[in-house]
Structures are given as structure tokens and as C-alpha cells.
Amino acid sequence: MKLLVVGSGGREHAIAKKLLESDGVETVFVAPGNDGMTLDGLQLVDIAISEHSKLIAFAQEHDIAWTFIGPDDALAAGIVDDFNTAGLKAFGPSRLAAELEWSKDFAKEIMVKYQVPTAAYGTFSDFQEAKAYILEKGAPIVVKADGLALGKGVVVAETVDQAVEAAHEMLLDNKFGDSGARVVIEEFLEGEEFSLFAFVNGDKFYMMPTAQDHKRAYDGDKGPNTGGMGAYAPVPHISQDVVDQAVETIVKPVLNGMIAEGRPYLGILYAGLILTDEGPKVIEFNARFGDPETQIILPRLTSNFAQNITDILDQKETTITWLEEGLTLGVVVASEGYPLAYDKGVVLPAKSEGEIVTYYAGAKFSADGQALLSNGGRVYMLVTTADDVSAAQTRIYQELDKQKRPGLFYRNDIGSKALK
Ligand code: AMP
Ligand code: GLY
């Protein structure tokens, strides 16, 4: 079987590598991918994620069994609908089902309608009304651009002034363009943050282990929000009871709600949750795998990944199994300056193998092909599975210490919350 993965980051590297390791898979293409992926035998295809008709033509010419869609913007642009119209199978939600991610207001409406626990909120396109709501509710309060904004459209405001400024930037200064033409303003939720992922087809779903991302750039959750600087799974301090509660109060009603709305969901459902005193509540839904969470979740999958996705696409029952023991932890190495301006072209260390797995995100061969160079904000990620958090941290940080070089940085405390 030949497969295609759409996307170019560490998430797509982990998806494609796991697919290539599945019995029955000969070739995995990644469009457009990044050069680091070729070190794992993945084949790059020079087509951008926005070029749906070229991707479709490629899949037809190369007899691709199905295509796995990685990124949110491709889903929001209707890539799955276009593949299906061409008679091709693609794993990911339709444009209408993916609205759970690409409109925070839509996600809120669904949650209210189907009684899914989430923060109280208001949606505004008028700045004066948004400001009046902020003044009425007080701080802390959270201001979110309605549309996709690369994870950067959320401001957790500690003061009323900060919140008003954020609403001003989004609604009047067009900071996020159309994505910020409406804002969702919501109650600040206090508690431990974690993520739940599921493979979904309609009302059938298969839960994955719990995961915890680290969104801020620097140690101690300081600095600006990023795409994610490291993660681990499972989260030892989130009990099975909490997961069961989230499945009953969040996953089931949302999936049934999407069916009732005529937008049945197929693909990965990603729920960003906060465990409050009243139980788990939703802070966001994403319509795709997380990055960097995929890189620490998929190594724990012990069944045949390609077969699992094939079965789900064929509406068949499948058996998905996970490593029961230990913990998988990964640390992202990023370009100095990320998520703001940064330089490219730092020569990367040799790929770690064996107990440590390397997933590449922003990596490109030098012109002579002799070296792999940094070529993006997040550059690569080291992942390992060990008995517990401290064993995993020790192994990864010893390796990162050897790989340290000017122009790149990483957080030193990934997983430390699980030690407390
Ligand atoms: P999001 O892009 O929606 O995941 O938001 C980015 C980050 O902002 C989240 O990872 C949370 O840490 C924080 N956040 C978002 N919404 C809330 C909320 N209602 N209460 C507290 N923190 C929030
Ligand atoms: N790691 C956060 C995300 O993928 O949205």
C-alpha cells in the first residue's frame, strides 16, 4: 500500500514514520514535507498544501490508498471535500466538520447547544460592545480571535486594560486579519491543562493517552505562546476517572451533536481541556493532531497504524492498542527568537537514533547536500520512552546538552509539572 501525508512539520514526520513502520505499507510520500524526513526513508513531494488539484492528481497517478491530512488550514480550506469529490479517500474532517476548530464561535455554539462544559463567553464584532463586556466581567479574562491564527490569537489578560487592548488590536487594528474580525471573550478557567485526542468516525471513537503540551516559549511557562515547546504522555496526574468523565460529558455529546447538525466528524478530534473544581472543561477543539503531541503519542501506539486508519475509513471496527507502561516525553529545539523573528541556516547535529527518536520540523539540506540546516521556528524534537518522567528527562537532556549550539534553544523543564 502507498500512502500520502499532507503537511511539513514534526507532526507529519511522526505520522508518516509510524505509517511507514506499519506492515503492508511500501511507500509513504509527504507533501511538501521537510528534508529531515528523508533520513527516515520518507519520500518528499514538492506540492504545497494549498494546491488541492495537484495533490489529487499526484494521489491518482501514484495509486495512493488514502491521504492523511495534518494541518488545520488545509482542513479549513476543504481539502478532504475536494479529495472525496475526486473519488479519493482522505483522513480528516470535511470543511464543515472542521469548523469546530476554524471558528471558535461555532465551537462555542455547539458546546452550549449540546451542554458540553466550557467557559462562559460572549462573541463580538463591535469593539464598544466587546469593551463593555470586558468591563462588566472584569479580569482575568481571555480574548480570542474567532478564526485560525497559528495558536497566537489568544490573549489571557490579567487586567481589564490588557483585555481591552487585545480586543482593540483584533477588532479595530486587524492584527489577525479576517480571523480577528470577530472575537470570543471568555471566562478565565483555573486548573491543570491537558489534551485528549481521539480517532473518530461519526459516533465511533477510540481514545488516545492523555498528553500535556508546553505552549510558552521559556522555562516556568514564561514568554510568548508558541505552537508548543515539548510534551509528554500519558499525564500521570490526570486520573482515568477524569478521562472517563471527559468522554461522557465532552467527546460523546460533541460527536453526536455534529451528527445532529449534519456535519458528521471523521478524523482526529483534539480537545484542549482544563481540569477545574467542577470537572474538565473545554478551552478549545482542534480538528487534527497536535504538534508536538503527535510526536509523543504515536510512538506509544502498538497496533498497525495504517490498518487502523484503513479500517476507520472503511467504516469497520478496528483494534487500537497502546503501550501500557512508562512515559513518552519530547523536547522541541527551536530557533533563537521563535515565535518572533529568527535566523535560519544553523548546522544541525547528527540525528539521534535508538532510544531517542528525532522528528524534524524546520530542516533543509545545504546546497551541497552535506549538512542539514535549520529552516523554521521549530526545528526538531527529541523523543524518548522511559520508566518515568525523571528517567525520560535525564536521557533527553543529556543528549540535548551534547547537541547545544548557538542560534537554537529549548526549554529545560518539559515534564517537570508531572514531578510535583
Ligand atoms: P488556545 O489557543 O485556545 O489553546 O489557547 C492558548 C492558551 O491560552 C491555552 O493553552 C491556555 O493555556 C490558555 N487559555 C485559553 N482559554 C483559556 C481559558 N478560558 N482560561 C484559562 N486559560 C485559557
Ligand atoms: N500543540 C498545540 C497544537 O497543536 O495546537
TrEMBL record:
The keyword Ligase belongs to this UniProt entry's keyword annotation:
yes
Please give the NCBIfam families that the UniProt record associates with this protein.
purD
Name of the coding gene:
purD
UniProt-listed Gene3D superfamilies: 3.40.50.20, ATP-grasp fold, A domain (3.30.1490.20), ATP-grasp fold, B domain (3.30.470.20), Phosphoribosylglycinamide synthetase, C-terminal domain (3.90.600.10)
The record's section on InterPro entries has: ATP-grasp (IPR011761), ATP_grasp_subdomain_1 (IPR013815), PreATP-grasp_dom_sf (IPR016185), PRibGlycinamid_synth_ATP-grasp (IPR020561), PRibGlycinamide_synth (IPR000115), PRibGlycinamide_synth_C-dom (IPR020560), PRibGlycinamide_synth_C_sf (IPR037123), PRibGlycinamide_synth_CS (IPR020559)
List residues of the ATP-grasp domain.
108-314
UniProt lineage: Bacteria, Bacillati, Bacillota, Bacilli, Lactobacillales
Query: Does the keyword field hold Transcription?
Result: no
Per the UniProt entry, what are the Gene Ontology biological process annotations, in alphabetical order?
Answer: 'de novo' IMP biosynthetic process; purine nucleobase biosynthetic process
Recorded catalytic reaction(s): these are: 5-phospho-beta-D-ribosylamine + glycine + ATP = N(1)-(5-phospho-beta-D-ribosyl)glycinamide + ADP + phosphate + H(+)
State the Gene Ontology terms under molecular function: ATP binding; metal ion binding; phosphoribosylamine-glycine ligase activity
Indicate what this protein is called per its UniProt record. Answer: Phosphoribosylamine--glycine ligase
Q: Which cofactor does it need?
A: Mg(2+); Mn(2+)
Query: EC number(s)?
Result: 6.3.4.13
For this UniProt record, the keywords arranged alphabetically read as follows: ATP-binding, Ligase, Manganese, Metal-binding, Nucleotide-binding, Purine biosynthesis
Family membership, please give it. Belongs to the GARS family.
- Coiled-coil spans are none
Task: Provide the leader sequence positions.
Answer: none
Q: In which pathway does it act?
A: Purine metabolism; IMP biosynthesis via de novo pathway; N(1)-(5-phospho-D-ribosyl)glycinamide from 5-phospho-alpha-D-ribose 1-diphosphate: step 2/2
Instruction: Quote any Pfam family the record assigns.
Output: GARS_A
